[in-house]
Amino acid sequence: MLQEIIFAGFGGQGVLLMGQILSLGALEQGNEVSWLPSYGPEMRGGTANCSVVISDTPIGSPLVLKPNAAVVMNQPSMEKFEDAITPGGVMLVNSSIIPLKAHREDITTHYVPCNAIAEELGNAKVANVVMLGAYIGATGAVSFDAVMAAIRAKFAGKKAALIEINEKALRAGMDAVK
Amino acid sequence: MAKKLMKGCEAIAEAAVQAGCRCYFGYPITPQTDIPEYLSARMPEVGGVFVQAESEIAAANMVYGAAGAGARVMTSSSSPGISLKQEALSTIAGAELPCVVLNVMRGGPGIGGIAPSQGDYYQATRGGGHGDYRQIVLAPASVQEAADIMYGSFALADKYRMIVMVLADGFIGQMMEPVDLPMGATPEVEKPWAATGWTPESDRPRAVINSLYIKEPDLTKLHERFAARYAEIEANEVRYEAYQLEDAEFVIYAYGTMARICKSAIAILANEGIKVGMVRPITLWPFPTKAVYEAAALDSVKSTLTVEISAGQMFDDVRIGVNGVKPTEFLGYAGSKIPTVDEIVAKIKSMKGVE
Q: pTM value?
């Protein structure tokens, strides 16, 4: 198994955190994993992305230029990464704020209204975890249980009250791509 | 202990604490500011000293002072900041003091950019400051290796009474990977030369920390000590990874994260029936000259390729190592433009004469 994923969106949408939670989940289920942020003179409202590589064997390049999955949370990210996805790959589109349809026919595209789903759940901030649920639902790369273990680790202590809403968000995201 | 997912900078900083480093002096600069940030909280927990100095050179001079007093001490910076430290580093070398310096390289020259680079190879392996001295230079290719190297660097510096530079690229500093942190202090050596406070009742001569050798043959003797030390290091401390050299038709030479990117290219080429091996130097000085030669000299090897995020700096040492036994080619760019997996695959194919 070799999953090379790019998570991309506006700064503040939690794209780096999505990648970190997935990476922790992959570590939890015993995979090799690397997480690499694109860092630059970036700020809230600017674009941010991270490369995550999950593998059964030691990871070569941690830098992903041709992902087999791209999670795009805003339109500039979709415009930037759709063409980079390898044929047969997967794109997950935040259809709450991206009106575009994919032009690629050799990839599978899932449209997930993750902001709307998060708002229905009662917390707009979990849109990223909804999308993470959609990603694991669409690819099966990391199990629900492993990602939940990662969320519990990440939200331990003062933030423990947030675990329940994140669990609902993760499940709702998986359901959205069934 | 279970592996933790850690950012390179934080793993490096924690490994330094585990190794017994109790003094950190630095000044913030991207992409390594996570190190002073981490240590500003961590050093007080272990009774250590953290100072954010007023400048890079001030931080490096504080390293000189602490090292002279026998402390386990480090500083860290990124390329432009490392240049600013060189006056003190040459002094530290001249005074035969042990310390650890981390450079998380970004693109240059000047203030340059903030993206990863390998443009400081010459500076790291050719001294950096003035005056015909060497420093041990180690280049990690993963977060785990960065932590392990940092952990071992203090004992290495103490053993040889010299600067150990950990030369990482921006990827290593910012990347998160699973890491098993080394635990427990590394062996300390006696430092009878350290200036720890002298009184007329002391049963040892007064310790003087200095890099001034104005009377001959004092300076010549210093360099004779250096030469003996460097010969011992070249004999005992060379480290490298030899990767899939058996039956290899081509050999790649690369270090740091660039070597990881090359491994991805090697896997693609292997699937297409083209066997490529690699020698990844871990010590850039002492350079694995013999291993570089022996890989190139293998009967199966037709030619070699060096790949760097630079205009070709390690390439000089590779050519010294290969010594003409096989052709040497280069792929890389100055600044922060990263040679891609596709470019490496295409380059090897062009060397083989296939599309």
A: 0.95
Rounded Cα distance between A100 and B137, Å, is 50
Percentage of chain A exceeding pLDDT 90 = 90
State which fold the A2-176 domain adopts.
Answer: Pyruvate-ferredoxin Oxidoreductase; domain 3 (3.40.920)
Q: Which of A23, A62, A63 is closest, CB to CB, to B5?
A: A23
Distance of CA B135 to the CA centre of its chain: 9
Identity of the residue in A33, A37, A60 whose CB atom sits nearest the CB atom of B260: A60
Cis peptide before B109 (omega within 30 of 0): yes
Asked if the interface predicted TM-score (ipTM) of this complex is over 0.85, the answer is yes
Distance (Å, rounded) from C-alpha B171 to C-alpha B168?
A: 8
Which DSSP state fits B206? P
Please identify every stretch of chain B with a pLDDT value under 70, giving residue numbers as ranges: 1
Element (H, E) at A1: none
Fold observed for domain B241-352? Rossmann fold (3.40.50)
Give the DSSP H/E element, type plus range, for residue A110. strand A108-112
pLDDT of A41 above 70: no
pLDDT of amino acid A42:
58
Burial class (CB in 10 A: 0-12, 13-18, 19+), B234: middle
Q: How far is A158 from chain B (nearest CA, A)?
A: 20
HSE-CB for A47 with a 13 A CA cutoff: 16
Instruction: Please indicate whether, in this complex, the C-beta atoms of A35 and B341 are within 8 angstroms of each other.
Output: no
Residue A40 has what pLDDT? 63
Q: Would the CB atoms of A23 and B176 count as touching at under 8 Å?
A: yes
Confidence at residue A78, expressed as pLDDT on a 0 to 100 scale: 96
Contact B336, B115 (CB under 8 A): yes
Q: Give mean pLDDT, residues A112-141.
A: 97
Same fold: B4-189+211-236 with B241-352: yes
d(CA A82, CA A91): 7
Which among B302, B296, B306 has a CA at the least distance from the CA of B254? Answer: B306
Q: B192 preceded by cis ω (within 30°)?
A: no
Q: Name residue, tokens 């639902």.
A: A137
What angle (nearest 5°) sits at the alpha carbon of residue A72, between those of residues A66 and A77? 75
Contact B174 A36 (CB under 8 A): yes
- Beta-strand runs (E) in B4-119: 4-7, 23-26, 49-52, 73-77, 99-105
Percent of chain A with pLDDT over 70: 96
Q: Which of A139, A113, A150 is nearest to A18 (CA)?
A: A150
CATH of domain B4-189+211-236: 3.40.50.970
For residue B17, the SS3 value is: helix
Are B86 and B116 contacting, i.e. CB atoms less than 8 angstroms apart?
A: no
Give the model confidence (pLDDT) of A115-127 as tens digits.
Answer: 999 999 999 999 9
pLDDT at residue A11, rounded to an integer: 83
